[in-house]
Design a protein that fits this description.
Length: 185
């Protein structure tokens, strides 16, 4: 009997042993929509996204009267590039996709949209990071009736939601990071 096996042999044996179990399992399924959009121009992007959401059963059934979180995927630093291309054309979610999705959600009756990110390269508020990256936070505020910017909790820092004086369209915005949790214990 052989006592030593290569990693490849071990994986092959494990796969062979689990194949009958996996073959019997019913995989969950959910509707999916795929479409081509040649540019990020709103005139082309918006109808493509709208059609895709309709193909999966409509956006209203998912977001009506709910709070929805959108993870922005702003990884790295605001000034980083991949070659000569800006990050929103390479690894980040393009702002036009986020804005169009927010507008569609607003039209479908979403109660509130929370834009989420934890810019690991800075402790500044999300809005400041967006500005440094060339994004305009006010565009996102105007995209829906109630929009909040939220930083993920990071390294024991907690977020605070403060009212924005005089802003009817934006009742609250995450602007302040409180002291680290450990220093308050």
């Amino acid at each position: 009997m052989r006592l030593q096996y290569t990693r490849r042999e071990l994986f092959q044996a494990a796969a062979a042993a689990s194949a009958p179990v996996l073959a019997r399992a019913n995989a969950p399924s959910a509707p999916v929509a795929v479409a081509r959009c040649r540019t990020y121009e709103p005139a082309e992007l918006y109808p493509v996204l709208e059609r895709m959401f309709d193909q999966i059963g409509g956006l209203g059934r998912l977001v009506k009267d709910k709070t929805v979180a959108i993870k922005l995927n702003l990884t790295g630093t605001a000034d980083r590039r991949l070659g000569h291309a800006p990050l929103e054309q390479t690894t980040w979610t393009h702002p036009a996709v986020v804005l169009a999705t927010m507008r569609l959600m607003d039209r479908a009756g979403v109660r509130r949209i929370r834009l989420l990110e934890s810019p690991w390269s800075t402790a500044e508020p999300l809005e400041e990071f967006m500005l440094k990256a060339g994004w305009e936070p006010e565009d996102f505020v105007r995209a829906a009736r109630r929009v909040e910017f939220r930083e993920h909790e990071l390294s024991g820092l907690r977020q605070a939601v403060l009212p924005l004086p005089g802003a009817a369209r934006r009742p609250s915005v995450s602007r302040l990071r409180s002291q680290p949790l450990l220093s308050r214990l």
